[in-house]
Amino acid sequence: MDLLEYQGKQLFARHGVPVPSGSPATTVEEAVAAADEIGYPCVVKAQVQIGGRGKAGGIKVAKDRQEAEEHSKAILGMDIKGHTVHEVWIEAASDIAAEYYASIVFDRSAKRPLVMLSTQGGMDIEEVAEKDPTALVRLHVDPLLGFQDFHARRLAFEAGVDADVVRPLGALLAKLYDAFVKEEAMLVEVNPLIVTADRQVAALDAKVTLDDNSLFRHPDNAALRNVAAEDEQERMARERGLTFVKLDGNVGILGNGAGLVMSTLDVVAQAGGSAANFLDAGGGSKAEAITQAVEVILSNPNVTAVLFNIFGGITRCDEVARGLIEAFDQIKPSVPFVVRLDGTNDVEGRKLLADANLPNVHTESTMLGAAKKVVELAG
Amino acid sequence: MAILVNNDTKLCVSGITGREGTFHTLNNRNYGTNVVSGVTPGKGGQDVEGIPVFNTFHDAVDKTGANTAMIFVPPRFAADSILEAEDAGISLIIAITEGIPAHDELRVYNQLTRNPNVRLVGPNCPGILSPGKANVGIIPASFFSEGNVGVVSRSGTLTYQIGNELAQAGFGNSSIVGIGGDPVPGSSFIDILAEFEADPETELIVMAGEIGGSAEEEAAEFIKANVTKPVVAYIAGFTAPPGKTMGHAGAIVSGSAGTAKAKQEALEANGVRVGRTPTEVAQIAAEIAGSLKTA
User: Which residues does the annotation say bind CoA (chain B) (predicted)?
Assistant: First the structure.
């Protein structure tokens, strides 16, 4: 789950990472009141989960009340690369002497957290690393040992940080690591990490991705989900506990198990079709879950045919058939369905479907055959 | 022969008294797996259809000589249960649990690598089946028979699909190992490929991967240097869009890294034939098997 900038900063602040003071606002009135409280000059920053806000005009400095109002009016409701701005963050302007970059990522290959630091912050870090690999220094941390002071010093000196900043920067990195571990983040990134004119350090931006699997331990973080930015169909699926991704095609897909569903998408593409979604009904799905899944798939008006590709292990094919029959009873779909059932209780499942004699439902015995059939029917 | 689980397996199930735990434990026992004990804290002294339940893994190992653990507890308790099994001296831990927090997996992995005597398979995996010998996990064993093809996969149901295609092409299996689709699996493709390479019964290896991470690319290098047996691969997710998590926490394409195409190219560059569909994987396996017989 990705946080908005200000949510990330508030999370940082809880762990002692210095951040400029600020306040969120969803209306122009709130924004101006917040600006008055913080004082001028201040910065009005669009809160959207997409990079390049500054270039799009989503970050503006206000030197007085009138500018705070103008900028808030312009930014609230603005569209930045398909993301509507529902919220701004009003922040005290900082006196910047230098811009650094710092991040901690969950490095799957190394199976350790990776801490990265550069003195060339404020721009696209991938570009910096590509032009001059030595400009971005990296260090893996043993999660059972944790981030030590010597780690911070090594990073700071290797990156060429000004000597008088090494100590406060080290303290910031330690707190950032603490936030990464305690909040169970997959990524924390600060770009730019600023050095102020009076030689203090602070996080001027915050990018935080949390681990969805850990949210049960962090109810406060779970409540930060940015529902307004969510696609309607994806929200519907999430509320029903389904693993779902919306795609651009017209063949609705339901399968069990992430790998098999991905494979189904590929086989449909090879048959000349294009999937409208990824939907993993999960292991051991009961009839009700299948009915709800059909509801989600058909809520996309682009869908002209639906493919069920089930290989039951823990999932029982008779349950899947019952769910489909129930869905037809409730929703009465107008598009054709192609169903392939194999695995646990497949004989019972196929018999249930045959007996129900649902209109416009075709059964196929192989995955490849089912994919070809659904593409033909989808048109 | 087979790898990891066999007739010497003495299985202890953590979470044996839960609904799913009981169901699959009995399923495994019915298949012939030697299930010796279970662990549920607070339910020590009870039994599940004659299988004794203990409060701790230490008790279970002391009293029943368990050498293999299956973890079937909910995500919030799973890391602790894996660490307890390791602490009790279990040498093979198979974690079925899905949805374990990534930082828990990180700590578990880094702890277990300090112990050369333990192997973790999973979590978020369907388990291991050695047809005719033992089944530990949720793989529907009736679809597989004894044979010489070793299968290693990041995905459960995809394994069944490929196994079924192989069976229809006349193949049986030495062992089928699901390593799971999480970001930090206890065992990698490389670990399992090494086991198959050393297993005299395995003549051909099928490896099913997917988008995300670099495990397939690393496996490709390893195969070139260390595997003498033919390997057929399959990669799921050619049409997956970048930046979206496709079900498995590990199945996400970040930029150009971890794409199905990149993985296919890495494998092919190292002499591994890659099937574009599960059906094609079985066809390639049949071609290779044909040439093995005539060789």
Answer: 17-20, 43, 96-98
